[in-house]
Design a protein that fits this description.
Chain A: One of its GO terms (cellular component) is plasma membrane. The complex is a heterodimer of chains A (328) and B (428). With 328 residues, chain A is an all-alpha fold. Chain A folds into two domains: 44 residues, no CATH class; 229 residues, MetI-like fold. Chain A has 14 helices and two strands; from the N terminus they run αααββααααααααααα. The chains are: A mainly alpha (328), B alpha/beta (428).
């Protein structure tokens, strides 16, 4: 489960390390000088040590063992990783995760951007609309899965009834490879579009209005302003949402689990990496293999983190100075 | 980033953490039981797995002992929580309910009392032999004490059968589906005349075939049997495929779809345990009065049913055993049935107490009477610890039904997948 904590860990960890930078220019042992401050931030570290760092370290150890959770452990060396590399079910889960991530993230971020742009305009009921779009993010997942299960039900769902009404062929949403993936992607989009729109909205409000005024004076229309002013000025915020969506996408678990159960649905079409890990560790009680899957996910996530990081660095290198004002 | 400061900081942190951990470990590390009260035994169970009234009585004093019972309801993920406390050696209940997956615990049999040492053998005659066997480990230790059972039968919509010109009286239907071929034939006729399904998926046919089979996936030495010629798993597979190809399954792998199929009448039958009657009543209340239960093809099976165990850390195993045997006397099992509909594991319960059946949903037929009559005929079988590793058979049957995978390819894939998993776990 280490990977799940990734996003939670990142932010506080960074803030705290910045705090340790501050006392550097002063004299005397910082630990002694600032002990009340250290004491004040220590609860997080103690909790992290017990519930974060120890399990992470222990999962490394476990990934070299065969263990059912109670009985004696058996050292198996790299056997779990060897099995993983030749496990078609694992690679199926990796493929599923990326497909669902792609078909959910791209439409979701685009929709969120458009929504944020519209919410930023002078429209009525702005406050109500912002809350309304954010609401799916705080809705109970289990209730949501039941609703989505009914909407996309193969033979009794609203979507298929509508398709039949329009004279279009029905789609086995919950029992075909692409149907399952699209349904999960729609759940993700439904849940996180409003959340990302709110983040974009915050970014939009940081864009100086004189840029818009200048564009209008130059005779730009709405679409041109959106394309040439809004999107470039929002770039750092967009990159941030891409990164958070990547982390969220790679650790996708709840949507397929509540919609399809622990087995990932027909043909394991909805089996994501984290769901497969859960399936192995907590329904088959194969904790060694579950840990190995977790570390494989860590490697995949690390590769993506490096790609993201290079992307940001290179872009900043090209157009550095101008961008900084917007990101601050 | 200041490396020196950071190192010192981490050093200080380490000291502080060490101190805190030492303090907390010495404070509570040594208690293996949940309750420190020597007169209090702690039971773990899940909702509706024990009669609340009887728990109330035991809370005041366990009959036949000087101890009191504290009953803790454990929510979702019961096995994970129970296994965690066993593995950690701390906060272990003194007595616990275990579900029908009790064979999961066989490799860790040293964590439990052999109930025969507490005198369980004297009680064995009072329970169905097949149920008693399910709680015996392959090494012959009695780890689990019978609680409830789930004998199975063939549920069907008598009104639809009648309209289709098929036998609709339970006795006639039982006679008409004496074996699986006859059952498939009846389903084919039903499909032709009324265009409805007899069961929802091939996987269900497969599962219920095995639930009624004396042979399952493994023998008592955990040697896999499925890939042998003429194995029960292969036979169940073939029946399931034939049922599917004859069009008598609705091919609905999604649970919500299945419920809709039963309530809308697209599927007019099911083979499941006694407890399914209640689920059916909740799922399809509009169909009340039109369902009946007949004998399934072959002998009845068992689906579900739980047990009690006494972890080896129990502070008073005699008192815990007294609680378990008292809770499962025929009288108390009958009372438990009336209260939370747990079907008895003791045949005497049917005659000892006044068991009241919730009739009406099955017309004139009394489901209690039906299942009480079939329960003794469930064949004894062996459920291996490693059955979850062979889950691929059910998965592949779904692939055959949902995406038209070639059955022989699916079978080969299932065997490969099961073998791979078992080899990884060091079983084969």
């Amino acid at each position: 489960m280490a990977a799940l904590d990734e996003s939670v860990r990142l932010t506080p960890g960074r803030t705290a390390s910045r705090a340790t930078d501050q006392p550097r220019p002063r004299q005397g042992s910082p630990l002694r000088r600032f002990w009340p401050q250290y004491l004040a931030v220590s609860p997080f570290y103690l909790l992290f040590l017990v519930f974060g760092l120890f399990p992470i370290g222990y999962s490394v150890f476990l990934s070299f063992q065969d263990w059912d959770g109670i009985g004696p452990m058996r050292f198996v060396g790299l056997a779990q990783y060897q099995f993983l590399l030749s496990d078609p079910r694992f690679w199926n889960a990796v493929g599923n995760t990326f497909v669902i991530w792609l078909i959910s993230t791209i439409p979701m971020l685009f929709l969120a951007l458009v929504l944020a742009f519209l919410l930023h305009q002078n429209i009525r009921f702005k406050g109500f609309l912002r809350v309304a779009y954010f609401l799916p993010n705080v809705t109970s997942m289990v209730a949501m899965a039941i609703v989505f299960g009914s909407i996309f039900s193969d033979s009794f769902g609203i979507v298929n009834s509508a398709l039949a009404g329009l004279g279009i062929d029905q789609v086995p949403w919950l029992s075909s490879n692409w149907g399952i993936k699209v349904t999960i992607a729609v759940m993700v989009i439904w849940r996180f579009t409003g959340y990302n729109a709110i983040i974009y909205l915050a970014g939009l409000q940081a864009i100086p209005t004189d840029l818009y005024d200048a564009a209008k004076v130059d005779g730009a229309n709405g679409w041109r302003i959106f394309r040439s002013v809004t999107v470039p000025m929002l770039r750092p915020v967009i990159l941030f949402t891409v990164i958070t969506s990547t982390i969220g996408g790679l650790s996708l678990f709840t949507e397929p689990q509540v919609l399809l159960g622990d087995t990932g649905g027909v043909g394991e079409a909805g089996m994501t990496i984290v769901l497969y890990q859960y399936n192995q560790a907590f329904t088959k009680f194969d904790f060694g293999y579950g840990s190995a899957i977790a570390w494989a996910l860590f490697v995949i996530a690390a590769v993506f983190a490096i790609i993201n990081w290079r992307l940001i660095r290179e872009r900043d290198g090209i157009r550095g100075g101008r961008k900084k004002g917007a990101s601050a | 980033m200041g490396t020196l400061d950071r190192r010192q900081f981490l050093g200080g942190l380490g000291v502080m953490t060490g101190a805190a951990l030492t303090a907390s470990l010495t404070g509570c590390g040594s208690s293996t039981s949940i309750s420190s009260d020597p007169d209090e035994l702690v039971l773990w169970y899940w909702n509706r797995s024990v009669s609340p009234t009887l728990l109330g009585q035991a809370a005041e004093g366990i009959p036949g002992s000087t101890k009191r019972l504290r009953a803790d309801v454990i929510g979702g993920g019961y096995d994970n929580k129970f296994r965690t406390s066993l593995a950690g050696g701390a906060y272990i209940p003194d007595v616990a309910a275990i579900n029908s997956n009790c064979s999961l615990y066989f490799p860790s049999e040293d964590k439990f009392f052999d109930l025969n040492e507490l005198g369980a053998a004297d009680h064995s005659a009072g329970y169905f032999d097949w149920k008693w066997d399910l709680g015996t480990s392959p090494t012959g230790r009695q780890l689990f004490f019978p609680l409830d059972t789930g004998p199975t039968g063939f549920y069907y919509r008598a009104d639809v059968f009648d309209e289709a010109g098929l036998p609709s009286d339970p006795d006639d239907v039982s006679a008409a589906v004496a074996d699986w071929d006859a059952w498939i034939e009846l389903g084919t006729e039903l499909r032709a005349t009324a265009d409805v399904a007899l069961m929802n998926t091939a996987g269900m046919v497969f599962g219920q075939f095995l639930n009624a089979s004396p042979e399952r996936y493994f023998d008592r030495d955990n040697r896999p049997l499925y890939s042998e010629d003429g194995s029960a798993v292969r036979e169940a597979w073939e029946v399931a495929i034939r049922a599917s190809e004859a069009g008598i399954t609705a091919k609905l792998p999604v649970p919500t779809e299945q419920n809709s199929a039963w309530s809308s009448g697209r599927t007019v039958g099911h083979i499941e345990a006694v407890w399914w009657a209640q689920i059916l009543g909740d799922t399809a209340p509009d169909t009340a009065g039109s369902w009946r239960i007949a004998h399934q093809p072959g002998p009845p099976g068992n689906s579900g049913g739980s047990f009690f165990c006494i972890p080896s850390t129990c502070k008073d195993p005699e008192a815990a055993f007294a609680f378990v045997t008292w809770l499962n006397t025929p009288e108390n099992q009958a009372a438990t049935f009336n209260e939370v509909q747990l079907f008895p594991s003791s045949p005497e319960a049917f005659t000892a107490g006044e068991m009241v059946s919730d009739t009406g949903f099955f017309g004139e037929q009394d489901p209690l009477e039906f299942f009480a009559a079939v329960a003794p005929d469930v064949p004894p079988t062996f459920v291996s610890t490693y059955e979850p590793q062979a889950a691929a058979f059910a998965t592949e049957l779904t692939n055959v039904e949902a995406s038209g995978k070639d059955p022989e390819q699916a079978w080969a894939d299932a065997v490969t997948e099961a073998d791979r998993n078992l080899a990884k776990r060091g079983v084969i």
